[in-house]
Amino acid sequence: MYAMNPALDELRGALDRIDGQIVDGLAERERVIDQISSLKLTEGRLRDTAREEELLTRLVDLGRQAGLDAQYVTRLFREILDHSVRRQQERLVDDRNPSRYKNALRVFYQGTEGAYSHLAACRHFGPRQAEVEYCGCNTFEEMLDAVGEGRADYAVLPIENTTAGSINEAYDLLARKSVALVGEEILEVDHCLLALEDLPLSRIRRIYSHPKALDQCTEFLRGLSHCQVESYADTAMAARKVRDDQDLSQAAIASEQAARLYGLTVIRRGIANNKENFTRFVVVAREPVQVDPRIACKTSVVLATRHEEGALLKCLSVLHAHQLNLTKLESRPRPQTPWEYIFYIDFEGSLVEPRVQDALLRLAAHTSFLKVLGSYPARTTGGARPAEPRPAAGPMTASPFPAQDAVPTEPETLPTTHADVLKELERKPYKLVARTTRMQDSQFRIGRALVGGDRPVIIAGPCSVESREQILACARIVKELGGHVLRGGCFKPRTSPYAFQGLGYEALDLLEEAGKTFELPIVTEVMHPADLQAVARKADVIQLGARNMQNFSLLKECGRIDRPIMLKRGMMASIDEWLAAAEYILAHGNHQVILCERGIRTFETATRNTLDLSAVPVVKELTHLPIIVDPSHACGVWRWVPEMTKAALAAGAHGVMVEIHPDPSKALSDGPQALDFEVFRRLMQQIAR
Ligand code: PEP
Ligand code: MN
Q1: What's the CA-to-centroid distance between 488 and ligand 1, angstroms?
Q2: What is the reported pLDDT for 608?
Q3: How many domains in the chain?
Q4: 70 conformational bin, left if phi > 0, alpha if psi -120 to 50, beta if neither
Q5: DSSP characters for 496-557?
Q6: SS (H, E, C) 479-490
């Protein structure tokens, strides 16, 4: 209905005015950034994460007072800050390389408009102060030749994907062509199914996409056995075909942007097998650039080792001796020389640094071929990550639960383990988990948090995922208060078969969505080996519940996946039995086990279980694995949970897991022990102190 409605027209006019003001504000901001860039040409640090954090915190507060959602404000301003940082970096690079600066640039990519390479190019060159003309090419080689011959200023070349791995052709071309690397770009690839209209999947008969994209969506496609799947030269071309044919039974797998570009509708989002799917692109130019040392850089080299024993090890040792952190090592067959290899190495550091120059000189002593591809601002390392606003747990000056972006550090002193403990360990039914095998504490990264380090990791969420609203509300409060991981049961081990059994995979999808929305990693329990792989694709941590601590088939399966396992202590298990259960997981290959003390059964009935806090120091003596504490299932009553949470941290636990619920009286499981949000907030404020 488009009937004239003066009130609506007026409101639309108001929106237009506000949008205009936003654009004016952004333009004004950009002018100020450019002025700041001029100052930074001579002085100061380029990227100040602490300042960014402060800024975000202030904006989130301001937003909250004005009734705006914290996550919304964070998302918008992160994009704005990222743009500013990029713009400043580009200014600095231009300043050092005056010949680079141009009013108009020609950037080549492989594929057609709307393809992922095109999106990566736009993302990379968007902040540049220049007119950019983007040109699609048929092949990688054609585009690199265009750069080599000066017909293009830059080419954007996909080099690796976090699901599908290295793109061999790109590596082989970089060794052969005389070009340089001057940048990198990371693009999150979110495959969507696009069709002419919002149709049910059963109506689709044919699906087109690039073979790589099809490879990344095999599980989704398996569920569509009634469809014919066809390869296309690129994802955008597949989308264009669907538009051109105007056939309702056709669909394409491509990006959301491609849908917008070709007027299609997204009928399914996030259909890739892996929830985290990123492609890394390198930016290729004819000449290398010099990068200001204040910008965190990566350097790429291609080398062939001499035919000498231990040659590769010697090369890597040179980098290690110069404290150059390796971020990528790839080998490819050496053309015309069977059984010899070319190695591609990326490390953190820039050619303007003396230690890098020295390392390259020494590398040359062990190589028969060494080509330096260039140094460029890094987009994948810790320093390139976006800042986070500080949690709103209370009036505090510094974040009590920092994002813990730091790389795991080697502790300066090893934990003091008594000689007699080591002796005792020799008689235990476990080896790999024992301190005798590894003295140092094991540390695992879960999202941005590091488990097993000096800072406690806070895990919170409902006992069971009950609804979208419920889990989103929990995720929001966990994020807002600075928690690190979201928990939520999907498959529930219930004493009675008539009790709520969990929503299974439907819950998992909701938990995944909540985790994604609030940028929180998720942990959930698996009860059956058959579910493990499917759950592990979506969950960041797999919980093995108390009742399953000695389910040996499940333990073995957990040993075969590459995901941290949170192993709860069985309610009737001794510490040795618990560690022997952990040993099963390690013995089958997976060394990422987090122990979780959750109370044991004793003669005491006042609490649901007896929280054995003394297990914390004992376990820390016996094993290098991290240990966290779940006071909720031990207490069984919410009123005692805050005190026991603090006690657990005081006892030295590496983290805690607590159950929360927006309305505990309505919880479908474990309501009596769940903290409501106010109590949770107070608890978080207390542990922050
Ligand atoms: C849970 O964490 O929801 C749970 C069922 O815990 P436990 O296995 O410790 O009883
Ligand atoms: Mn529970």
Answers
A1: 10
A2: 97
A3: 2
A4: alpha
A5: STTS----HHHHHHHHHHHHHHTT--EEEE--SHHHHHHHHHH-SEEEE-GGGTT-HHHHHH
A6: HHCCCCEEECEC
Of 27-36, 379-388, 468-477, least confident by mean pLDDT is 379-388
Please give the number of the atom of ligand 1 that sits closest to the Cα of 670. 3
CATH code assigned at 620:
3.20.20.70
Cβ atoms within 10 Å of 671's Cβ, excluding its own: 16
Q: Supply the angle between the helices 168-176 and 140-148 in degrees, to the nearest 10.
A: 30
Helical (H) or strand (E) element with 169 = helix 168-176
371 belongs to a structural domain: no
Helix (H, G, I), strand (E, B) or coil at 369: strand
Indicate whether 477 belongs to any domain: yes
- Residue 396: the pLDDT is 38
Q: Return the CATH number at 198.
A: 3.40.190.10
Residue 129, token pair as written in the block: 């102060």
Full residue range of the structural domain in which residue 532 is found? 419-493+500-688
Give the closest residue to 271 by CA, choosing from 227, 319, 322, 314: 227
- DSSP run (H or E) holding 449: strand 449-451
The label of the residue with tokens 């669907």 reads 242
Interval 450-494: pLDDT, tens? 999 999 999 999 999 999 999 999 999 999 999 999 999 999 999
Looking at 248, 276, 304, which one is the last position of a domain?
Answer: 276
Residue to mutate (ligand 1; options 463, 496, 595, 641; most atoms within 8 A of CB): 463
